[in-house]
Each structure stands twice: as structure tokens, then as C-alpha cells.
Amino acid sequence: MNILTFEGGFDKNLCYLVWCQSTKVAGIIDPSVEPDPIYHIINNEGLSLQKIILTHSHGDHTVYCDRIIHRFPSAIIYGFEHLESPVHDGTFSGVRHKSIIELGKIKLTVLHTPGHYPDSICLWNEQEKHLFTGDTVFVGRTGRVIGEKSDLTQLYHSVYNIINRLPEDTIIHPGHHYGIKKTMTIGENIQTSTFFNCPNLREFSSVMDNFEKNRRE
């Protein structure tokens, strides 16, 4: 699996171009950055862009979706089946927990991980141990739960009962570059961050409250 990361957008957003080397089938995860550099790679590598995958429907993660669809009108947009903000252009395919999205020979397992937003999903490649986490988990911390549709209890479940139970050497690829580096393993996050070492929901709530009181970005 080939992964190229692009940073930009509203707030250090991270967008991913993922493709299968043998079939040249490609997908974009979170169209959140100016897409011209992505088009350049697609052309240079001779890729077939077939899918656009949304980790959730917050506008900063979907802002370039229509523009990419206009360039690649046959590409299909994938997102959680109950998308909070429906897409307007292109063909939409709704997915649910444990659905499989294929990019050539690459299989991405959908994990429904609500909390930051009801339609949040993560995309897990079990074979090569990569996890695209959107705004559910970043390097060093989880996503925030200050929005009207956020839910702290759901986020706790998503992090502790779904993500933290994956192999610890799984590499996370988050939706924003908020940490000391762009990627980190699940195990490293658990070892170095209090967000991932809470014994119960009450402790997790306390960690989140302290973060909001002292946050700088």
C-alpha cells in the first residue's frame, strides 16, 4: 500500500492519497487540502482515482470533494451511511461498522467511531497495520467533544473499546497534524499520552476537561 500525505486546509489538515501498486487503483481520504499537488501525483504515477473516502462530514474535511469529483466524475464518495452533512455532487456509497472498502488489492475495514462527530469512521488496513483516524484520534490526544453533536461517552468507547484494542504497532494517520509528528503507533500513543491511559470514563472526562482549560490550538 502506497500512502502520500498532504498538509494544508483549514487547520493543519492532513489528506491522504492511497493506492495499490499492482493495480494503480487509488483513493483520497479526506479531501481537505488544495488538490492540484494530488492531481500531479495521480498523473505521474498513472493512477486511477476511483474513491473519495470521508472520515466524517465536518466541512474542513470535505471542502474539496466537489472539486475533485468535477475532475474525476466517475469516482465514488464513501462515508458513514448516516452522513450528518450529505454530499451534493457525485455518487455516494454509505458504509457501516465493519464494511470493507477496496482499493485494488487493498482492503480498508470501516470502524464506526462516533464521539467527535456521529458519522466519524476510521479506516483500518489490517494487513499492513495502518489506521486512518480522522478527528477521532491524533498523535498525542483524542479529538475534541465541544460540538453540538459531540458525545464524550461515545468517544471514550470508540477510543478504548475499538482503537486501543487494535495491534499496538498499528500506525495512525490522523486528520490534523497536531502532535510532535504526523504519525505514531497506537502503542506509542498509549505509552506517552494520558488521553489513552484512563481507567474509566470519569478519568477520561477529567483529562478532556483539563485539556480544554489549557489548550493552545
Query: Briefly, what CATH class?
Result: Alpha Beta
CATH topology: Metallo-beta-lactamase, Chain A
Portion of residues in beta strands equals 25-35%
Q: What's the order of the H and E elements? A: EEEHEHHEEEEEEHEEHH
Q: Indicate the structural class.
A: alpha/beta
Biggest sheet statistics: 6 strands, mixed
Oligomer: single chain
The overall average pLDDT, rounded, is 96
Our measurement of the CA-to-CA distance between the termini, rounded to an integer number of angstroms, reads 32 Å
Low-confidence spans? none
Strands, count? 12
CATH architecture: 4-Layer Sandwich
Radius of gyration equals: 16 Å
* CATH fourth-tier homologous superfamily: Ribonuclease Z/Hydroxyacylglutathione hydrolase-like
As laid out across the biggest beta sheet, the strand order is 1-2-3-4-5-6
Alpha plus pi helix count: 6
Walk me through this protein's architecture:
This protein has 217 residues and is α/β, with parallel strands linked by helices. It has a single domain, classed as Ribonuclease Z/Hydroxyacylglutathione hydrolase-like (Metallo-beta-lactamase, Chain A, 4-Layer Sandwich), CATH 3.60.15.10. It is built from six helices and twelve strands. It has helices at residues 36-45, 59-62, 65-71, 152-163, 186-192, 201-214, and strands at residues 2-8, 13-19, 25-29, 48-53, 76-80, 91-95, 100-103, 106-112, 121-125, 130-134, 171-174, 184-185. The strands form two sheets. The protein has a six-stranded mixed beta sheet, with helices on one face. A six-stranded mixed beta sheet has the order 7-8-9-10-11-12. The longest helix is centred in the last third of the chain and has 14 residues, at 201-214. It is globular. 41% of the residues are buried.
